């Protein structure tokens, strides 16, 4: 049956030509007979670069992750690399995670690069994404690729692309590469490897990376306190198992308990509904073990080991999950204190993103360091390091459970962040305090913030339309009040405008355009809305705040903040 959209039909027809193998063609025929809707979803567009590389469901079609889409990407990237670095033989390093097909797709990417005369370093086993970012610089590569879909559901895979500084691609380079890819046909892909150009790397990078991570994530905690820090760690079937336990050991942590049921890498993630540390259920097994053995801290990393979920003991002695904003402010504060002790030089900065807690700005002001805020995605934070070579990046992160310590890895890094979290627990032990108490102390000094993220899943082509429509509605029928609080400022990152709703003055936002809306209320609440760039979701980020005089008032203030969040959610019909 012919598809009513001739563009879609032309793509399907192309994929039924002999350039594509018989398995692919057979799969297309099966979809034509059994699932025309899925066929349309698979061909209605090409995969795009989003917040963290290119991500999609594995399967046949131009909008799916398979050997042809990734082959064409790599062919385009090879052409672009050769054009950008005409004087040298470009070098690329490739890593992959635990997902089904990640290893074979990594091999395919290596083959295509080598077929184009590009020198390839390939990890022979799964490894964390931050190690790849490190390896790009360490091996003097011009490019790096990780085959991963991060924390997405099991049916996804993806292609994160790093450039010579170790950070992910940022505009306009991603658009230039897409242009190169789009100018090719599938027949242009060179699949025949030049094996002598592919070098397997393992121990060579592992040990240096571990040593440097230990250095980067160790500060002042005594070895005694480290030994007393009881840690439960889970790799959630992902890559961190290859390095994090060893890194903790080399950093001096001896009381480390790994969740055995989740230690083996597995792309089906059999023990979790979602391998995303943002979801409380992901850490359930780790929490159970931690309660049994009375651990001080629980840490779980996502499949490619760049984000981490943390639980620490609260003042009642119960383990409490923290969100990404809470770990970020505590980690940032710890680093700021450290550098203050050493004597700040005046060129330091911390960084975060527009959808993260405003508390980061307060911290920067209190320590008199610069605060830089960028669009969602660590690629933008990494870009700051590149753009401000004379400035010293202390650290920073995002609400999405990721943190970056200094500039040695140019992406969020759950290896060093794991060490930093444990360091804070150990340091607090030395001081007779706790991680949790340190966070409460920050609330008394810098304002008590509470954040909540609501993600609405809207799958496929129809879902994407619905998400776009919600953004249009929010723009055209912008709320005057949210949760009973008057909206006083609206930032529209697509239009680059910041509008004072009282006097209607408009100023220009000096950041690249992006489909994001942020509403600020009279009472200091902040509500951001944007389509996810990695998953079929629209995300709403709510941040509310109130002063906190004494730590003992925390429960009461928290209840008040929860009520505010509830009112905002019900007003926006998000509950
Ligand atoms: O998914 P990861 O771990 O590669 O992480 C990437 O995607 C996340 C989700 O992005 P979005 O909200 O657009 O879905 C971002 O928060 C993060 O900064 C980025 O590095
Ligand atoms: Mg990840």
TrEMBL record:
UniProt keywords, alphabetically: Isomerase, Magnesium, Metal-binding, Phosphoprotein
Record's keyword annotation contains Isomerase: yes
SUPFAM superfamilies documented for this protein: Phosphoglucomutase, C-terminal domain, Phosphoglucomutase, first 3 domains
One Pfam family hit: PGM_PMM_III
Swiss-Prot/TrEMBL cofactor(s): Mg(2+)
Domain Alpha-D-phosphohexomutase alpha/beta/alpha: 48-185, 221-314, 323-439
GO biological process, one term: purine ribonucleoside salvage
UniProt superkingdom: Bacteria
GO molecular function, one term: phosphopentomutase activity
Name of the protein: Phosphoglucomutase
């Amino acid at each position: 049956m012919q598809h009513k959209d001739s563009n879609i039909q032309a793509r399907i027809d192309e994929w039924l030509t002999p350039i594509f193998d018989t398995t692919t063609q057979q799969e297309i025929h099966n979809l034509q007979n059994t699932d025309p809707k899925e066929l349309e979803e698979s061909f209605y567009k090409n995969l795009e670069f989003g917040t963290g590389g290119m991500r999609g469901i594995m399967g046949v079609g131009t909008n799916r992750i398979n050997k042809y889409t990734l082959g064409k990407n790599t062919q385009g990237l090879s052409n672009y690399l050769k054009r950008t670095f005409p004087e040298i033989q470009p070098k690329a390093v490739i890593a992959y995670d635990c997902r089904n097909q990640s290893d074979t797709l990594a091999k395919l990417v290596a083959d295509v690069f080598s077929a184009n005369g590009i020198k390839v370093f390939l990890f022979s086993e799964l490894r964390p994404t931050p190690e790849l970012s490190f390896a790009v610089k360490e091996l003097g590569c011009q490019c790096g690729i990780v085959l991963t879909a991060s924390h997405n559901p099991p049916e996804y895979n993806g292609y994160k692309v790093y450039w010579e500084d170790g950070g992910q691609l940022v505009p306009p380079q991603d658009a230039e590469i897409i242009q190169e890819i789009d100018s090719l046909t599938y027949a242009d892909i060179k699949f025949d490897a030049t094996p002598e150009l592919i070098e397997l790397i393992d121990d060579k990078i592992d040990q240096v990376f571990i040593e440097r991570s230990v250095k980067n994530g160790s500060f002042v905690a005594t070895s005694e306190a480290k030994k007393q820090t009881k840690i439960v760690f889970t790799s959630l079937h992902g890559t961190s198992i290859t390095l994090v336990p060893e890194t903790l050991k080399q950093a001096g942590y001896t009381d480390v308990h790994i969740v055995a049921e989740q230690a083996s890498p597995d792309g089906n993630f059999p023990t979790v509904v979602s391998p995303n540390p943002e979801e409380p259920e992901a850490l359930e097994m780790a929490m159970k073990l931690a309660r049994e053995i009375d651990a001080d801290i629980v840490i779980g990393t996502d499949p490619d080991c760049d984000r981490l979920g943390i639980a620490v003991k609260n003042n009642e002695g119960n383990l409490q999950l923290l969100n990404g904003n809470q770990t970020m402010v505590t980690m940032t504060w710890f680093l700021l204190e450290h550098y203050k002790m050493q004597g700040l030089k005046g060129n330091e900065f911390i960084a975060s993103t527009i959808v993260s807690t405003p508390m980061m700005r307060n911290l920067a002001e209190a320590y008199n360091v610069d605060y830089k805020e960028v669009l969602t995605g660590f690629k933008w934070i990494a870009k700051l390091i590149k753009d401000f070579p004379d400035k010293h990046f202390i650290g920073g992160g995002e609400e999405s459970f990721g943190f970056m310590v200094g500039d040695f890895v140019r992406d969020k890094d759950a290896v060093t962040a794991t060490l930093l979290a444990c360091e804070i627990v150990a340091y607090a032990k030395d001081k007779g305090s706790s991680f949790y108490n340190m966070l409460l102390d920050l609330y008394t000094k810098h304002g008590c913030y509470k954040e909540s993220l609501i993600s609405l899943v809207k799958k496929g082509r129809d879902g994407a339309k619905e998400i776009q429509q919600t953004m249009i509605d929010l723009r055209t029928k912008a709320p005057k009040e949210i949760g009973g609080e008057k909206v006083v400022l609206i930032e529209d990152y697509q239009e680059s405008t910041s509008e004072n709703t009282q006097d209607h003055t408009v100023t220009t936002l000096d950041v690249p355009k992006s489909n994001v809306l942020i509403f600020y209320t009279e009472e200091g609440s902040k509500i951001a809305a944007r389509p996810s760039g990695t998953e079929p979701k629209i995300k709403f980020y709510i941040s509310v705040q109130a002063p906190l005089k004494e730590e003992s008032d925390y429960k009461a203030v928290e209840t008040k903040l929860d009520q505010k969040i509830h009112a905002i959610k019900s007003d926006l019909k998000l509950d």
